[in-house]
Backbone:
């Protein structure tokens, strides 16, 4: 029973990791950009949530209404203002620029919010739980998992059922020919980054409700997101959810064996999968 | 002679240090079908890339309806009503056949071409509309590429070697369909290696040789020897 419990908790934790990963996956899928600052944007989302909740005195989940559009706007401006300039050449320049962004973001957050760990207060939601037979499931992890599924489904729908998604796929296939269709790739990339940071805002707020955070925790979130994307297979959104779940389950089972093994177990499973299937479990199949 | 829709004067084009076009002068009248012929590497594709904005040039070198467009980006040029059927078809593999057509029309210009009109022209595409575009035969892919460009309802359409790699019977089908396509008052520039095909559908032709216009004239009356001289550069 304890093992079943560990697997179920790990699955729910995987929802959070999928939220970390979705934006990363989307950005890589559309413009082959690896955003090293992604984890710091998750933390930025958490801090924006914290500010909004303290200033307006609202529930963190309500703060999403402000933080999501705000992060989307930051994403669009960032892409049009800086990141578009780094694309088109080698892979190194976007890596270096986003690495620099990561350093800047961490230091700015440190300046503004200090290094003290903070947490968002979600009231009764944090401790509420439901029983399912012998299992006791936290409402917050359940909600996080539900949001992750909804976000992935919404992204999937956007990608395959809307004009914007069609433009994303076309631009990803062939930027030059997409331009011939009247699509301005700089704008399309801006929209992709806006969407990615909107999802990142959700990830940041769910993170900030679940655990305490400080300006330095972005790197770890980037790794989890990255591992989930790679396990699931690049460019496959449902695969990213599966990757998050596999990582989450590996971590909780590792922690069950020995509390110190939580992160290690996740990394080992990641490396094992990478060794056996270098393209991830579910590499991109379109349609 | 009617007003030119496109006027190219002194067009130079470069790939880095390499110069691919040297002072090309060319004009297309409203509603005219022009053929561009020339050997491999003569600069035909480069000319079409320059017109469509994939290669940037000095603004004044290319004028569209008397407005300088040489410096515009490809998406801006597309919005003005110039469409390119690129060499090698270049469909979007992640998009179905129908999505490839729809994305061609997303500029939203008014005109005779719609999904239905393209399906009427190439009925086989309607049957295959849900398929991955890469699963089609070469000829069918070329139909999609042509349909995709038509969906933009362009005023000027550029074809880059639409017969490349296709079986002769398919080439004949596509060339038989061309008058119906261009007959709607569109102007067209047809790049083709098959000289007789190109001359048969055009009113005038330009021959490029190593980045320069080596001959131009009326397609119906040009002498074969003149063409081979302009084509291969034999004195
Ligand atoms: N991307 C590029 N970089 C460098 N040189 C190029 C590039 N594309 C074309 N060229 C060169 O420019 C010249 C003109 O090429 P272009 O493709 O315009 O010829 P073309 O007439 O279309 O030939 P083909 O009949 O083979 O399609 C050639 O010498 C070619 O090698
Ligand atoms: Mg060519």
Residues:
């Amino acid at each position: 029973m304890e093992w079943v419990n560990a697997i179920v908790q790990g699955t729910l934790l995987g929802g959070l990791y999928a939220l970390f990963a979705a934006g990363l996956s989307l950005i890589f899928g559309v413009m082959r950009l690896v955003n090293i600052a992604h984890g710091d944007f998750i933390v930025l989302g958490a801090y924006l949530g914290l500010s909004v909740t303290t200033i307006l005195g609202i529930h963190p989940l309500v703060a999403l209404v402000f933080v999501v559009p705000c992060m989307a706007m930051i994403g669009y401006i960032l892409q049009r203002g800086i990141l578009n300039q780094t694309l088109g050449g080698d892979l190194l320049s976007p890596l270096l620029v986003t690495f620099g962004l990561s350093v800047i973001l961490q230091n700015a957050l440190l300046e503004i919010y200090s290094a003290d760990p903070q947490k968002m207060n979600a009231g009764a939601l944090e401790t509420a739980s439901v029983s399912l037979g012998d299992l006791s499931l936290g409402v917050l992890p359940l909600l996080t998992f539900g949001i992750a599924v909804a976000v992935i489904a919404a992204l999937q729908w956007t990608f395959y059922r809307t004009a914007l998604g069609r433009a994303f796929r076309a631009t990803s296939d062939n930027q030059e020919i997409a331009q011939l269709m009247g699509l301005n790739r700089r704008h399309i990339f801006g929209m992709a980054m806006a969407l990615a940071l909107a999802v990142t805002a959700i990830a940041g707020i769910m993170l900030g409700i679940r655990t305490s955070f400080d300006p330095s925790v972005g790197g770890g979130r980037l790794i989890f997101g990255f591992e989930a994307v790679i396990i699931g297979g690049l460019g496959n959104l449902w695969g990213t959810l599966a990757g998050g779940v596999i990582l989450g389950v590996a971590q909780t089972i590792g922690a069950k064996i020995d509390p110190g093994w939580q992160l290690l177990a996740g990394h080992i499973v990641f490396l094992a999968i990478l060794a056996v299937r270098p393209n991830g479990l579910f590499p991109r199949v379109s349609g | 002679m009617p007003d030119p829709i496109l006027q190219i004067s002194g067009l130079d084009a470069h790939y880095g240090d390499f110069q691919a076009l040297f002072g090309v002068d060319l004009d297309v009248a409203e509603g005219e079908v022009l053929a561009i012929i020339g050997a491999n590497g003569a600069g035909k594709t480069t000319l079409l890339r320059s017109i469509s904005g994939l290669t940037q040039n000095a603004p004044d070198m290319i004028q569209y309806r008397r407005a300088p467009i040489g410096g515009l980006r490809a998406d801006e040029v597309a919005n003005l009503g110039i469409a390119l059927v690129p060499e090698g078809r270049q469909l979007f593999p992640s998009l179905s056949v129908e999505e490839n057509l729809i994305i061609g029309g997303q500029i939203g210009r008014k005109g005779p071409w719609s999904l239905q009109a393209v399906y009427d022209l190439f009925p086989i595409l309607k049957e295959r509309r849900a398929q991955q575009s890469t699963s089609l035969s070469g000829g069918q892919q070329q139909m999609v590429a042509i349909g995709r460009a038509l969906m933009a309802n362009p005023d000027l359409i550029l074809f880059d070697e639409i017969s490349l790699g296709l079986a002769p019977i398919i080439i004949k089908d596509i060339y038989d369909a061309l008058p119906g396509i261009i007959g709607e008052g569109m102007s067209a520039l047809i790049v083709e290696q098959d000289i007789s095909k190109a001359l048969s559908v055009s009113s005038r032709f330009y021959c490029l040789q190593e980045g320069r216009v080596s001959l131009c004239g009326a397609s119906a009356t040009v002498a074969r020897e003149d063409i081979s001289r302009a084509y291969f550069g034999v004195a």
Chain A touches chain B through 20 residues (CB under 8 Å).
